[in-house]
Design brief:
CATH superfamily: EF-hand
Distance between the termini: 53 Å
CATH class: Mainly Alpha
Number of strands: 2
Number of domains: 1
Largest sheet: 2 strands, antiparallel
Strand order of the largest sheet: 1-2
Shape: globular
Radius of gyration: 18 Å
Strand content: under 5%
Structural class: mainly alpha
CATH architecture: Orthogonal Bundle
Bound molecules: calcium ion
Number of helices: 11
Length: 226
């Protein structure tokens, strides 16, 4: 499908991943993109928000379970134990790379939203075609379904399948939906997603923005108490 036909002029050079981890992410995303996406429109992504929100909040139990000293963050040691427990077989280097990539406020701990992003990246990276465990990669089928939705949304937005979402691709997705009025809002969303302001959104940036939008990093300030 598509092929050279719709190649936009602005994509004159291939985007070069800045880290080894990012290169792996891009590779995994491109592999996943070959399977296509179930998303039909930008609106179909928006409609999934409540479900994604619900799914990610369930992650809180897992977070608390691995935050052994209950200080509200998962440190490197706790994360290693977490991987061991979940039977995620990553090398020490891979775990450290992930930790660094997701520790956006650089306090050497995974806060809840950082932890969600990290797990979702693990989910993507574990999509190893040579592996046989097709059904569940991490032994958490419900959470993985939520992660899959997020991957699927990204695949939908990444029209040229290069592992990044550009401003043009974002605009294209919105135009398809025919929602002209929401165009400005969505461009604002793009700016919010493009954390490092390099004009491209990688999957990690996309996830952080998402946890933000669904309000996952909000402190709960007793909202569950009536
Ligand atoms: Ca801790
Ligand atoms: Ca792209
Ligand atoms: Ca960026």
């Amino acid at each position: 499908m598509g092929g050279i036909l719709g190649k936009p002029e602005s994509s004159k050079h291939a985007w070069i991943p800045e880290t080894k981890l990012e290169a792996k992410m891009v590779e995994a995303m491109q592999r996943r993109a070959t399977e296509g996406t179930a998303m039909k429109s930008f609106n179909s992504i928006i409609l999934k928000f409540p479900k994604i929100d619900e799914g990610l909040r369930k992650c809180k139990d897992i977070f608390e379970q691995f935050d052994e000293d209950s200080n509200g963050a998962i440190d490197q040691e706790e994360l290693k134990k977490c991987f061991l427990k979940l039977e995620i077989k990553f090398t020490e280097e891979e775990i450290n790379d992930l930790f660094q990539a997701c520790d956006i406020n650089e306090d050497m701990g995974m806060k809840f939203n950082e932890f969600i992003v990290l797990l979702c990246l693990v989910y993507l990276l574990k999509d190893d075609p040579t592996a046989l465990h097709a059904k569940s990669r991490m032994g958490m089928p419900k959470l993985e379904a939520t992660f899959e939705t997020l991957v699927d949304a990204f695949v939908f937005l990444d029209k040229n399948k290069d592992g990044y979402v550009s401003r043009n691709e974002m605009a294209q997705a919105i135009n398809e939906s025919g929602e002209r009025s929401s165009g400005r809002i969505v461009m604002k969303r793009f700016e919010e997603m493009d954390w490092d302001k390099n004009g491209m959104v990688n999957f990690k940036e996309f996830l952080f923005a998402f946890t933000n939008w669904v309000g996952i990093d909000d402190e709960e300030e007793g909202e569950e108490k009536v």
